[in-house]
Amino acid sequence: MSFPRFIFPVYIYVILLLVLSGCGDLDPSSEDKRPPVDSGTIGPSVGQIAPEFSLFDTLGNPVTMSVELTGADGIVLYFTMWCPICDSHMSHMRSQIIPKFPDVKFFIIDFVSGTVELSRKAQEENGYTDLTVLVDNTQEVQETLYDATMGTTVVIDNTGIVRMNEDYKDGVKLTETLTALP
């Protein structure tokens, strides 16, 4: 069975129209539509008390959030999978953001390698031995505590309050958040 040539583009347009009509709001705003959180509760959302965590770094040293916040303006957690996108984010952060905030501690969290040894190998192979990489081999910090995924960036101020928890974009929001730390 053969269709006339003009019919095929019509099918493409109809399918495209059906797909796009299922997308809902095609004109998104920049308004944050997440539900408000109760201050004083523990959780990963902005305004909540950051969940405490302890992980090992790639040298086998324990790192605990509350200890790291002592004497710091805050901490930044960046969740990586060592992919090209993460490399681009971490490179930008290392060259453009970290130098501007010497009193903030930056931690890369590897939640995919599985062991301290494999995480250290990934860290070395990707050229990030100048940054502290934490190993989340059970993915508890990534999934359970911070509801994070590849590229999620979390800022916790020196009082333990989450100030940002979103995907890294261009570093503008991260810089604004760090500048506004108490």
Structure, described:
There is one protein chain. This protein is an alpha/beta fold and 182 residues long. It has a domain at 54-179: Glutaredoxin (3-Layer(aba) Sandwich), CATH 3.40.30.10. It is built from 6 helices and 7 strands. The chain has helices at residues 7-21, 65-69, 84-97, 116-125, 140-145, 172-179, and strands spanning 54-57, 62-64, 74-80, 104-110, 132-135, 152-157, 162-167. Strands 2-1-5-4-3-6-7 form a 7-stranded mixed beta sheet. The termini are far apart.
List keywords for this structure.
182 residues; alpha/beta; Glutaredoxin; seven-stranded mixed beta sheet; 6 helices; 32% helix; globular
Specify the CATH class of the domain at 54-179.
Answer: Alpha Beta
Q: How many helical elements?
A: 6
CATH superfamily of the domain at 54-179: Glutaredoxin
Strand order of the largest sheet: 2-1-5-4-3-6-7
Report the count of strand segments: 7
Structural class: alpha/beta
- What percentage of amino acids are in beta strands? 15-25%
Question: In short, what is this structure?
Answer:
This protein has 182 residues and is α/β, with parallel strands linked by helices.
Topology:
Blueprint: H1 7-21, E1 54-57, E2 62-64, H2 65-69, E3 74-80, H3 84-97, E4 104-110, H4 116-125, E5 132-135, H5 140-145, E6 152-157, E7 162-167, H6 172-179
